[in-house]
Write a structure and sequence with these properties.
homodimer; 248 residues; alpha/beta; Alpha/beta knot; 7 strands; 12% strand
Chain lengths: 248, 248
């Protein structure tokens, strides 16, 4: 069963190689999309090579809707984007994947039925296909080298969908041990520990530079955002050096 | 000849299949990146399958720099991102590709030497590899289905590089001693210095825990973004403790 999340359909138009259909299914499902439509697949349907390539995302192929022509695939859609390698001279708005998927997210949230078209591997969408679209998505690529394949184009668009749809788990700047940051008191104790021992060891020399050296050391610890585990490790290092000296 | 644009190096760590190295080259060049480094390619180098897959981006393979180990590949780098399928329990900041490439664009514009690590196909980066990184990039994927391959991971990161590098209009303030970050080689030497001395001092005890303790210590240094001055200070601390012991 398809997921219940409202989402655009991704429509593969006359795809040639089964492998690429399978790769497209995987690319979509990586980003939570599972409504695939296929128009006139060159090698018929079902396609064993597509299945072989789709590992883990085979459900998308089982549930894919197959159409003879693009008009059929778009019959229930209210807004259609067409992806092209480079914007052609057609009077339609051209958007980046980011902008287009932001629009798609807003339209889908408002109950619209959105489709995104992807052309066949070799030639891309024909002008007749693009004529059925409301807008164009153009991936900004190196002008000297534009060689995205079908699966890659689906991947980037699906990635932008997930980002824009807000399904993106906000990957935070917070390190793994969340909530385990050392407190100010713990940092102070670390500063004191190092200062005391290094004083004893004659590190702060010459005297005229001692204050500055201490300041640098304190800055080092405080700039670093230490966790409790870090603080323990640093205490342990110093304790061990002292023990070693005392054994000596 | 590599392009003259300042840009990060993409480092493939122990890649297995030549096809994937070729796909990575294409993915990079689609978005204007052409500095590839390869660490310990499983099937040796050059790799005919990589060349066959790289159509149009073969120059990246000709110019790729090959290393025996990751430390070598990072010796001249000042900031290292590691891509992982899912953030592990290491206390490092975790960023989305978007955020990370924005940071990278700012750092590169400020003259820093940035690397992005991509792990081998099956297993991804090992903890020892990640320990050499300053921060982690995690692609936000469908939690029910995370199946990005090497080429796809390179593609999404390169895509975000192009997006973000285009957006950087002014160089933001880099904290600390601007332009004076420690390089990979300098961090390696610091790691070695502390390991050797602490070994001597009997810090890595019990033996069963030694490897883990060393990993934690390495993570501590790499997470912190040390300046050259910091590194000197930390060397100085250790040297002084040893001197103190020897005087004792």
């Amino acid at each position: 069963m398809p997921s219940e999340t409202a989402q655009p359909s991704f429509v593969l138009v006359r795809p040639q190689m089964g492998e690429n259909i399978g790769a497209a299914a995987r690319a979509m499902w990586n980003f939570g999309l599972d409504r695939m439509r296929i128009v006139g697949p060159r090698d018929g349907w079902p396609n064993p090579k597509a299945v072989a390539m789709s590992s883990g995302a085979g459900r998308l192929l089982d549930e894919a809707q197959i159409y003879d022509d693009l008009a059929g695939a778009l019959s229930d859609r209210t807004f259609v984007f067409a992806t092209t390698a480079r914007p052609r001279d057609l009077t339609k708005p051209v958007y980046s994947p980011e902008h287009a998927m932001k629009m798609a997210a807003e339209m889908v949230a408002a109950g619209e039925q959105v489709a995104v078209l992807f052309g066949p591997e070799r030639a891309g969408l024909e002008n007749d296909d693009i004529a059925k679209a409301n807008a164009i998505i153009s991936v900004p690529v190196n002008p000297e080298y534009a060689s995205l394949n079908l699966g890659q184009c689906v991947l980037l668009t699906a990635y932008e969908w997930m980002r824009q749809a807000g399904d993106v788990t906000h990957v935070s700047e917070v390190p793994g041990n969340k909530g385990d940051w050392a407190t100010g008191v713990e940092i102070e104790k670390l500063v004191d520990h190092y200062e005391e021992r290094l004083e004893e060891a004659g590190f702060f020399y010459p005297a005229a530079k001692a204050d500055n050296m201490k300041l640098n050391l304190r800055n080092l610890w405080s700039r670093m955002r230490l966790t409790r585990a870090d603080v323990q490790l640093l205490h342990g290092i110093m304790r061990q050096m002292v023990r070693w000296k005392e054994r000596g």
